[in-house]
Design a protein that fits this description.
The chain has 21 helices and twelve strands. It is an alpha+beta fold and about 400 residues long. The strands form three sheets. An eight-stranded mixed β-sheet has the order 1-10-9-2-3-6-5-4. A two-stranded antiparallel ribbon has the order 7-8. Strands 11-12 form a two-stranded parallel sheet.
Length: about 400
């Protein structure tokens, strides 16, 4: 962590022969934004995930831009932008359905940063230089800056060497970084799993020691973090790592209670494995299906097995409301997603009522998700009298 009057070392400058990022691989929206900011007299770099993943030979998901322009200046220079956030002000630039995140260099002025009594940063809009910004970031591998004009990567914290060594290190003391923002614990698990990294010993020790801080995360933010954990291609590995470090109870307490059951754990892992494969195939992933899976064991614990016709949908609906309400205390799911989850669960009963309710089920907007869910249940060993086969033949014949 950079402190006042600390001497700032010069960055290591990496050429294309080192980082292997070619101009043609740059995101056109990020390049356009950087060009506009440069034309207006400001610095602009691509930072974080794009640089990190590109160096590792992975396909980056998005490109974040960082600059010495303030959010208000960015808003004037770059079209179709809006300023969001109170805790950290950032700017979103929209191009069609794509959004590029633009942030301002942050300074390390501890006197102006507002923290809770547990060290959690509540507000921090102190702007600074690229050097100060580099030491404000969470992990060294995320503190690499690509100058798109010179095609050079600036490394102030040793992140390039850590990437090459497949080592995850915080910038400064991990205990302090985790206290500032406990979500960094979840990010550490995600990066370790996604990038096949090793933990620096201090990180591992402090995750065990400070994981209780995850209780401080707002429920809405937990929802967003759950999507990042389980819908970005490494869901199965992340889920297993969360159990290794005893973190599931903080993010998914309704799920944690049933992981001792081999049947329930197999069901969830099969779903997460399928999710990872769909991500690799560029197929659609939906939050409603993810949470339908993660909360299914909690539902069935209350309803009993949903494997025969006579169970009333009203009973499933009532218990689903209870499960979702409990889950929302830790991780708030938007109402439209909650409705989709409930419909997927309720349709499990309707799908059992064949052939008499087949046409009604087929016409339901959530039929495909419910059908996939049914197949997942059978794949995981649940005995459903081969109803999945019946529906597969029905759909094939209909097509």
């Amino acid at each position: 962590m950079l402190v006042k009057n600390e001497k700032i070392r010069k960055p290591e400058i990496l050429k294309i022969s080192d980082h292997n990022i070619l101009p043609e691989s740059l995101d056109k929206d990020a390049s356009s934004i950087a060009h506009r900011l440069n034309e207006a007299g400001f610095e602009a770099y691509i930072v974080g995930g794009f640089v990190r993943d590109s160096i590792l030979g992975l396909k980056p998901k998005d490109s974040d831009v960082v600059t010495n322009a303030t959010p208000e200046e960015i808003n004037k220079i770059v079209p179709k932008t809006r300023i969001i956030g109170r805790r950290f002000k950032i700017v979103h630039a929209r191009a069609g359905r794509r959004i590029t995140e633009i942030s301002t260099f942050r300074a390390a002025d501890k006197n102006q940063t507002i923290k809770s009594n547990k060290g959690l940063i509540l507000r921090d809009n102190n702007y600074g230089t690229i050097e100060q910004d580099a030491f404000r970031r969470d992990f060294t591998i995320n503190s690499l800056y690509l100058d798109m004009q010179k095609m050079e990567v600036l490394d102030f914290t040793g992140g390039y060497t850590d990437l090459k060594n497949r080592m995850l290190k915080t910038i400064g003391k991990s205990s302090e970084r985790f206290r500032e923002d406990p979500v960094r614990i979840l990010r550490a698990i995600r990066f370790k799993s996604k990038l096949d990294l090793k933990f620096d010993p201090e990180i591992e020790k402090d995750i065990h020691k400070l994981c209780y801080l995850l209780e401080e995360i707002p429920s809405g933010r937990n929802y967003e973090e759950t999507l990042k954990m389980f819908m970005t291609g490494s869901a199965e590995k992340i889920f297993l790592e969360m159990q290794t470090y005893n973190l599931t109870k903080y993010l998914l307490p309704q799920t944690k209670n049933f992981l001792s059951s081999k049947k329930d754990k197999r069901f969830i892992l099969n779903a997460l494995r399928d999710t990872d494969q769909r991500y690799r195939n560029n197929q659609t992933l939906t939050p409603s299906f993810l949470f339908s899976v993660l909360l299914w064991p909690a539902l069935v614990n209350k309803t009993g097995p949903l494997n025969f016709k006579k169970i009333k949908i009203t009973k499933v609906s009532r218990i689903a409301n209870f499960i979702l309400k409990k889950h929302n205390e830790n991780c708030f799911i938007p109402k439209r997603i909650q409705q989709s989850i409930k419909e997927t669960w309720e349709l499990q009963i309707l799908l059992m009522k064949i052939p008499e309710k087949a046409n009604i089920a087929l016409k339901h907007k959530r039929f495909r998700a419910a059908y996939d869910f049914l197949l997942l249940r059978e794949k995981s060993g649940e005995k459903l009298n081969q109803i999945g086969d019946w529906w597969t033949k029905k759909i094939t014949k209909k097509i």
